[in-house]
Design goal:
By secondary structure, the chain is α/β, with parallel strands linked by helices. It is built from 6 helices and 5 strands. The protein is 34% helix and 15% strand.
Length: 163
C-alpha cells in the first residue's frame, strides 16, 4: 500500500553535500541511504525527491546537469531496488521568489497532484533549516539528517516505529 509520501532532500541527505554539485561523477551516497530508502518503501512510502538547485538560476550549471546528477543517483540506488519514485527540483535563485523553492510548498503540491495523494502520513527528511520549515509549513513530521536522533537515513525506521 503505497499511499503516503516521504519528501526527501538530496544534497546532504541522500548524497554527500558538495558545493553546487553538477558533475554526476561526484555523486556519493551517504552511509545508510540505500538501506534507509528500502525501509521507507517497506513501510509504504513513495519516495519523492524535492531539491533546491539554485545553481541553475545563478547560471552556474544548466538544468541538464541537475538531471545528470539525479540520473546518477537513481543508477546507484536501482541495483538494490531503492530508486526514487519521483524527482523534482527548483532551478530558481532565491530572488526569483518562486513557489517551488523550499521552504515554499510548490514541489510538494506538484508531487501530490502527480501522484494523486494528499499529505496524510507524509514526512519530510532533510538536513537544512529550509527542509524543517517545509515540514512545519505542511504540518507533517520533519526529520533532520545529521542530528543526534537521526545520524543517518537508516536510523529513521527506528524513529518511525516509535510513533
Ligand atoms: Mg540539503
Ligand atoms: Zn522554484
Amino acid at each position: 500500500m503505497n499511499s503516503k509520501i516521504a519528501f526527501l532532500d538530496r544534497d546532504g541527505t541522500l548524497i554527500e553535500n558538495a558545493h553546487y554539485l553538477s558533475d554526476p561523477d561526484g555523486v556519493r551516497l551517504l552511509a545508510g541511504t540505500t538501506q534507509g530508502l528500502l525501509e521507507l518503501k517497506r513501510r509504504g512510502f513513495l519516495l519523492v525527491l524535492v531539491s533546491n538547485q539554485s545553481g541553475v538560476g545563478r547560471g552556474y550549471f544548466p538544468e541538464s546537469a541537475v538531471e545528470s546528477v539525479n540520473q546518477r543517483l537513481q543508477d546507484l540506488l536501482r541495483p538494490q531496488g531503492a530508486q526514487l519514485d519521483l524527482l523534482l527540483y527548483c532551478p530558481h535563485q532565491p530572488e526569483a521568489d518562486c513557489r517551488c523553492r523550499k521552504p515554499r510548498p510548490g514541489m510538494v503540491e506538484q508531487a501530490c497532484q502527480r501522484l494523486g495523494l494528499g499529505l496524510e502520513g507524509a514526512i519530510v527528511v532533510g538536513d537544512s533549516d529550509c527542509d524543517m520549515q517545509l515540514a512545519e509549513g505542511l504540518g507533517v513530521p520533519g526529520y533532520r539528517i545529521g542530528s543526534k536522533l537521526l545520524p543517518r537515513l537508516d536510523s529513521l525506521a527506528g524513529l518511525l516505529d516509535q510513533v
